[in-house]
Amino acid sequence: MSEGCTHLDQIRKVTPSGKGCKECLEIGDEWVHLRLCQTCGHVGCCDESKNKHATKHFHATGHPIIRSFEPDEDWMWCFVDQVPVET
Known about the structure:
2 helices, single chain, 17% helix, 5 strands, 5-stranded antiparallel β-sheet, Herpes Virus-1, alpha+beta
């Protein structure tokens, strides 16, 4: 159980929307790291990327939890509670 995150009930088994940032691929742009929405499977770029599509997806949808979509990384973050989510 993750201390501080109150949105664990919104984690779903998701299918990634693609192998890269959905919006960056559509506009032909690049990203630094990828994040996977744990509610719907949207793949977006991180806040180190100039477009910050993962955070924009949160603001547009309210989907609270993302997981790193990078190889060998298995962490999650709750945007609403601003805390890491334990796996």
